[in-house]
Known about the structure:
Elements: H1 2-8, H2 26-45, H3 52-82, H4 89-96, E1 102-104, H5 108-111, E2 129-131, H6 136-143
Antiparallel strand pairs: 1-2
Amino acid sequence: VKEKFEEQFPHLLGYFENDTVGLIDRDDALDIAQQKFFRAQKQVLQCEILTEAAYEKSLELSSRTLTEYILYRDKIIGRMKEMTADNAESEIHNLIVPRFKEFSQEDMPSEIYQNNAWLLDDKFMVFRTILSEQRMDTVVNAIRLDEESGKDAG
């Protein structure tokens, strides 16, 4: 069980209770470790002043969070690698950005987590607008700067 945890959840190493692994339910052990990790994150993120100790802890926690991100990213890339020429273009498209969806910066707090545009390039992890399967006039209007909006489109 311990080896499986280390493989699947390396970002939680050190948060698992050594004396209870194998004695309690696997899900309970994982929940306890995740709660400990979240409490540590919360403690650092809520501190008013980043002391030297809090700074050191933030380095560790950010590395663990990056490890967790890489685990998810690897799974998504693995899913893309499993796709073949038999997969419809729409399936590949939906893995990157759901078809016919429009994501905008105004709704970024919720929409930034609903796409995998980073598969194309990491710079797409933040965006002003993502238009999926839109008409060209919609795309042009979306990328036009405010001062250009009153000008003739021709």
